[in-house]
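Quick bug: Translation factor GUF1 homolog, mitochondrial output formatted oddly.
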Amino acid sequence: IPRERMRNFVIAAHVDHGKSSLADKLLEIAGNLELAEGGERQVLDDLKVERERGITVKARTASMVFDDHLLNLVDTPGHVDFDYEVKRSLQACQGALLLVDSTQGVQAQTLANYNLARDAGLQIIPVLTKLDLSHSDPATSLEQIEQVFGIPEDEVIWTSAKTGEGCDEILPAVIKRLPPPPDAQALPLQAITAEENAASPPVAKHTMSGLIFDSWYDRYMGVVCLVYVEKGTLQVGQEFFTDSQALGQKRSQGFQVQEVGMLVPQPMVCSALRQGQVGFMFGNIKDSSLARVGDAISDHLDGLTQDEETLEARKVRSTPKVYASIFPLDGGDFDELRKSLERLLLNDSSVAMRPETSGALGNGFLMGFLGKLHMEVFFQRLEDEFGTEIIATAPAVPYWADMRGTGERVRADIPAQLPPKEMVEQYLEPMAHTTVIAPIEYMGEIFRVFKERRGVQTGVDHMDETRVVIKHDVPWQEVIVDLHDVLKTVTSGFASLEYEEAPPRVADITKVDILVNGNAVDALAFVAHRSVAARRGRAVAQKLRSVIARQQFEIVIQAASGPKIIARERIPPFRKDVLTKSGKTVGGGDMSRKRKLLEKQKAGKKKMKSVGNVELPQSAFYAMNERD
Ligand code: GTP
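Here's what came back:
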């Protein structure tokens, strides 16, 4: 397939606007789904090599042949936590289908996706979805598309993935309106057998370069990469290098390509991936930190960009934006926890991990993530895939302190590391630029929510007669805690929120310590703006009182800012004997009932961590991130 007949594109949409449904429909139209079921499909069928390699098709990246064109649908990680990765994937593409749910109109993520696509120089094809629904309102959506993106009505494709209406227009529009990849060579597309694959002749050196836009770890194959070949040919047997490997100078010897192919969306082994094509590739890469999303690849070391800018971009993207400490439930499981973490990290090299010892909780790990969603997914996987039970501290954001005298800028990843005020010239807090899109009538409520969170309004635009786009700069900590949920609540679900990192701002912050029976529990400490520190301290102490069970002795909880106690709560002692319920002893004859109660108590104990002789449940560690 010659270069003029290749197209690489993404589908961009706000959450739930119908991206997966439309992608499936397009594959069906191109005949890929028949192919998957072993149906007849001429163009690809003769070439088809079915191999049970068990490649996990994590991404919804898929190649289709339609009207004698090779169309590659490239999936991007949609969430802002992965902003850098999204930007890199877009470099493999020349166009974007921008979906707008006709029942909801343009939302914050639609706008963010549009900006990303436009900045990457992509051609945009707007697509209205869900037109079959009775409450669909295409006129309003069209007006917003014109108003916000300046795209005229006649460029918008009307569709319903449910009924199939309008979907036939999409692939012809992709061919007609999007440009082919630059400088792609005219080379035949062919699939081959495994034997032929292994016997492929080597290609000339120093000619290939490309980009990894997704990668994951597979137990059998090692790191599997989805790549876009920018130049030359990627072929079995070829030696290749990656940015991460070259920058880390971990190996001077490259990896070797073991297999390449296309995803349709199931893997189809090919002889080679030619210039302009996207597909999968794996070599003998055992360490996922050496082949990361966003890395350039090349068949020679000097083929890789090693300039400062690249280094800087790499550093910035891998700097965690959210931290949490985790501890094994039972101190003895520490080694097991480490093993699970190490294995999981092979899959996600953007997670940072280092051992940490908490005075209160013992040995654990400080984990760094790109965002809160990233963190939640990771913890979920830790439990699901490894059955590892942990106690995690509330997600915290890093702060900086400019030290008095030396002027040195110190970074505190967790509250316990924040240097005391006496040593500090000024503190800085991380910030976010936020964009909210909502119906006009909620404007007042939205302003109030941001004001309470020390947000600074930076812009308000009318999208049409009924909706506004509101921008703020707000402390990143506030975004982490509950901003999204609160905005949804005060707007009955109508607001959508997007955010991106902004430069840090000087802030009057203080560390609040929490003391349990006179001992400061480092894992419960938190950072707050001085103006709200006392109020938050009281709220956290009250929350702790409500979640910590009475024990056989009195428990005193205090919040302190420096030497000053700002809140005090008391949990009176209680003889905790489950065999006595409401003052009555459970009948001596009913042994199974007694056993059940004891088992229940044991299970209830599971997610607890002892601090001194006080047992703290998981919810105690989240107390500081809960607000009324
Ligand atoms: P995320 O991957 O979660 O962002 O969602 P998505 O954008 O991929 O949306 P998805 O395709 O999962 O669709 C979201 C919901 O809308 C699902 O319940 C779909 O069944 C429904 N949906 C998608 N397209 C249509 C459509 O054309 N008509 C109707 N009635 N429902 C649709």
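Actually, after a second look the formatting is fine. The pocket of guanosine-5'-triphosphate is lined by residues 13, 15-21, 129-130, 132-133, 160-162 (CB under 6 Å). Closing.
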